[in-house]
Prior knowledge:
Layout: H1 14-19, E1 23-29, E2 32-37, E3 41-46, E4 60-66, E5 69-75, H2 76-79, E6 92-98, E7 101-107, E8 109-115, E9 136-142, E10 145-150, H3 152-156, H4 159-167
Parallel strand pairs: 2-10, 5-7
Antiparallel strand pairs: 1-2, 1-8, 3-6, 4-5, 6-7, 9-10
Amino acid sequence: MTENLDLDIYNSSETEEDTLKDQFLSFSLGKEYYALEIVFVTEIIGIQKITEVPNVKDHIKGIINLRGMIIPVVDIRYRFGMKMVPYNDRTCIIVVTVNGSQIGLIVDEVQEVLTIASDKIFSAPHTYKGSKSKFINGVTKINETVVILLDIQKLLYDEKELVEEEAE
């Protein structure tokens, strides 16, 4: 599936950003559900031809050419240390803009846009340990489904990289 699903939700004015408050884009990896703040999402596209690049961090799958722009892509399954599965027609790339850079996130399937009030977001349980826990901003429950809310900064950048950027 290489068609462009073009979800045009990137807005830059303050008024429009207020309408994105409490909005999250949900997606699945296997049977687990995750969400990230929609203010970071530029668009959603189908899986593209990915060109591998040597000497990059392990979780970076490679780069894609999106309408003339070269965008690095991160396989979220790999980032979380999950079992890799073949891509299929539901596999998507969520293009996000973080720190002025566009990055693609490969996920199994995009679900829906959720409105989650801040009082419905809870801290992750302290007993949960593992490579994914450092990326968690909180958890919520939608009907009977637990949704893990991700911290996009921590997901894409190591803490060391964040400290170095803030020092600049």
